[in-house]
């Protein structure tokens, strides 16, 4: 786990990091590292240069922690696992408390199709404008909204929030979980797609028309 | 810039990458293009067999990369098409013998003298795949009308997008119109519903493909193969020609065929 200062100049930061790694090259070789960028917005080119810097030293950039959507998007584009800052299981240290009544809950919005193998983890809601294909996975502590076809696996309320919901324009997930509940889609060959919403009611997941 | 580098990949194995590479190479050569086919499946070389050039390999891709021979020494000229060359994979090594930048450097040397460089990617999403797509200007994704093959193709398209090589164009291989009509096989539309990328060709199941691959005479070399015709059409589309999709479903009565013509449905390919 490497934490990078969010304010330092990018090139001084990477140079310092490279120097630190080279000091103990044997120790770091082969390591899979998670980099915490804090609030720094890291565009894709910078992310790519960091990834290359690590790979030249036989290290793998396995995950990215960030509070910046630019950074998360860059990581997603490079197919690197992402988490909003705050390691799962720990409270985020300095982020402002979220008041759902006043501010709404933070979320991630993705305007692209999630293809097989793509995994999105979010502390908050996830909105996808595009399809979620079979083999893609979304795990969110809040709600999951798919403005498109949902065919992958989704887990809303992943930390136990039973009020979480999942909405999709065409709801055919491989597997759908809300908090501790789990359902699969019925095998229907031809159906008319319609917007639907899934939620927990009377201790089970129900799916109904989204209106 | 010169040649266009086209990588043929799929994710899943056994869907017809090598058959496609061999046939498109020969089809492009028949169209008068200067073509180099490169087998990037190091350790499991096959393209040479399918193209009928196995017994002429002296030097291979790894020999070039490691400097044991000059590039032209590893380029095997096809007997019938003097404008077609093959660079074979090494059989004794593994994918790590070559790096993505080696592939970029190799194709850079080949580009000025040729029109098309076709790279046959290994199955999988690891080093071999990354080697194969690194120099690509265009990627062709081969899939079969099967759920598992489509799933892997979807994963590949996602990775191509991440490498800025996406989204690529799709070849649906080994489709059986009869089974599609009975609802037992995914249709072209079912496949594109998931993958949402452009189709460059649909190749029908054809029993002549396997014996012709075995004998090293790909089906595009003969005139009367349905699959060969489909590969020829793809090659024409690669050269920028606008070729209408083949009517695969030649059976059925006149009325059904006219209905399909107007219905624009799945079996019309």
Q: In terms of structural class, how would the helical and strand content of chain A be classed?
A: alpha/beta
Number of domains of chain A: 2
Strand order of the largest sheet of chain B: 3-4-2-5-1-6-7-8
Q: Which value, in Å, is the CA radius of gyration of chain A?
A: 19 Å
How many independent structural domains of chain B? 1
What does this structure look like?
The complex is a heterodimer of chains A (211) and B (269). Chain A is of the alpha/beta class. Chain A folds into two domains: 1-95, no CATH class; 99-211, 3 Solenoid (Pectate Lyase C-like), CATH 2.160.20.70. Chain A is 19% helix and 34% strand. Chain A contains four helices and 15 strands. Chain A has helices spanning 10-23, 25-28, 44-56, 69-77; strands spanning 2-3, 32-36, 60-66, 81-84, 107-110, 119-122, 125-129, 137-140, 144-150, 153-156, 166-171, 175-178, 181-183, 196-201, 204-209. In chain A, strands 5-7-9-11-14-15 form a six-stranded mixed beta sheet, with no helix packed on it. In chain A, a hairpin with a 2-residue loop joins strand 12 (175-178) and strand 13 (181-183). Chain A is elongated and about 60 Å long. Chain B is an alpha/beta fold. Chain B has a single domain (4-263), classed as Rossmann fold, CATH 3.40.50. In chain B, strands 3-4-2-5-1-6-7-8 form an eight-stranded mixed beta sheet, sandwiched between helices. In chain B, helix 6 (147-162) links the parallel strand 6 (138-143) and strand 7. In chain B, helix 1 packs across helix 10 and helix 4 runs parallel beside helix 5 (127-133). The model of chain B is unreliable at 264-269 (pLDDT under 50).
Short description:
Chain A is α/β, with parallel strands linked by helices. Chain A has helices at residues 10-23, 25-28, 44-56, 69-77, and strands at residues 2-3, 32-36, 60-66, 81-84, 107-110, 119-122, 125-129, 137-140, 144-150, 153-156, 166-171, 175-178, 181-183, 196-201, 204-209. Chain A folds into two domains: 1-95, no CATH class; 99-211, Pectate Lyase C-like (3 Solenoid).
């Amino acid at each position: 786990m490497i934490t990078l200062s969010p304010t330092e100049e990018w090139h001084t930061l990477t140079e310092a990091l490279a120097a630190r790694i080279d000091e103990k090259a044997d120790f770091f070789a082969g390591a899979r590292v998670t980099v915490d960028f804090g609030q720094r917005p890291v565009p894709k080119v910078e992310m790519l240069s960091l990834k290359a810097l690590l790979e030249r030293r036989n290290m793998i950039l396995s995950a990215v922690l960030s509070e910046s959507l630019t950074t998360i998007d860059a990581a997603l584009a490079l197919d690197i696992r992402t988490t909003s800052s705050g390691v799962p299981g720990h409270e985020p240290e300095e982020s402002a408390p979220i008041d759902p009544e006043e501010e709404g809950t933070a979320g991630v919005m993705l305007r692209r199709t999630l293809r097989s193998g793509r995994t999105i983890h979010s502390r908050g809601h996830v909105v996808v404008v595009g399809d979620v294909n079979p083999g893609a996975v979304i795990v969110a502590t809040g709600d999951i909204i798919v403005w498109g076809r949902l065919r992958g696996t989704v887990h809303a309320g992943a930390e136990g929030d039973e009020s979480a919901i999942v909405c999709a324009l065409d709801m055919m997930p491989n597997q759908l979980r809300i908090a501790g509940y789990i359902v699969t889609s019925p095998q229907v060959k031809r159906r008319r797609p319609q917007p639907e919403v899934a939620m927990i009611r009377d201790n089970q997941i129900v799916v109904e028309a989204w209106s | 810039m010169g040649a266009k580098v086209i990588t043929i990949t799929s994710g899943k194995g056994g869907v017809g990458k090598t058959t496609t590479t061999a046939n498109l190479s020969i089809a492009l050569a028949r169209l008068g293009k200067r073509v180099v086919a490169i087998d990037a499946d190091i350790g499991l070389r096959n393209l040479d067999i399918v193209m009928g050039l196995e017994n002429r390999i002296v030097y291979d891709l790894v020999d070039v990369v490691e400097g044991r021979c000059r590039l032209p020494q590893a380029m095997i000229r096809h007997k019938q098409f003097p404008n077609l060359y093959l660079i074979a994979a090494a059989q004794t090594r593994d994918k790590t013998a070559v790096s993505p930048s080696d592939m970029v450097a190799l194709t850079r040397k080949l580009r000025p003298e040729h029109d098309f460089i076709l790279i046959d990617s290994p199955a999988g999403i690891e080093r071999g795949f990354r080697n194969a797509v690194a120099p690509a200007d265009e990627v062709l994704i081969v899939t079969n009308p099967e759920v598992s093959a489509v799933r892997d193709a979807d994963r590949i398209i996602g990775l191509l997008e991440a490498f800025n090589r996406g989204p690529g164009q799709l070849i649906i291989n080994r489709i059986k119109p009869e089974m599609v009509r009975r609802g037992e096989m995914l249709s072209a539309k079912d496949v594109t519903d998931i993958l949402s990328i452009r189709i460059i060709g649909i190749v029908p199941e054809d029993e002549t493909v396997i014996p012709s691959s075995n004998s090293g005479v790909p089906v595009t070399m003969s005139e009367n193969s349905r699959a060969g015709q489909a590969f020829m059409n793809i090659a024409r589309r690669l050269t920028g020609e606008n070729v209408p999709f083949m009517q695969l479903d030649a059976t059925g009565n006149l009325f059904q065929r006219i209905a399909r013509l107007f219905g624009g449905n799945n079996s019309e390919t």
